[in-house]
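step: validate -> pass
step: tokenize input -> pass
step: predict -> running
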Amino acid sequence: MLTVTFDNQTLHPLDQGLKQKIEDYIGKTLETEGIDCEIRPFEISYSWVTPEEIHTLNATYRDVDRTTDVLSFPMLSYPQDTKQLTTPSRIPVLLGDIVINPEQAQKQGETYETGFVREVCYLTVHSVLHLLGYDHMEAADKSAMREREKAIM
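step: predict -> pass
step: emit ->
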């Protein structure tokens, strides 16, 4: 079972269709990475924030003084916690928090001519991969993460 808690939706209200797409992409990302939500429950917090709020979060937690499109706050440490993801249990695992700037997602959807919904789904996949331990600070890691994103999308 996968539980996604949607917070701060007043900024850019989510209709049921978009919520379902987000949940589907989260589920697909977990499944593609070998995580079975049937053997163990998982939880993710999913929030919309303003450009100013994400700028503050980016500066506070990453020392990057600018607005961004998405931030991920994993609750597990990899690879030590990998076993938690695959061991059957009824105890839920909190994977972490996804924080999205819908204004930036809208701009990027227009720039890339993919649209808002597709951009939000891509940012969701990107963020879930971060929650699972992927990173893109080094060229090889970035390449591996992009490959996973493309496969999931």
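step: describe -> The first strand starts at residue 2 and ends at 7.
step: cleanup -> pass
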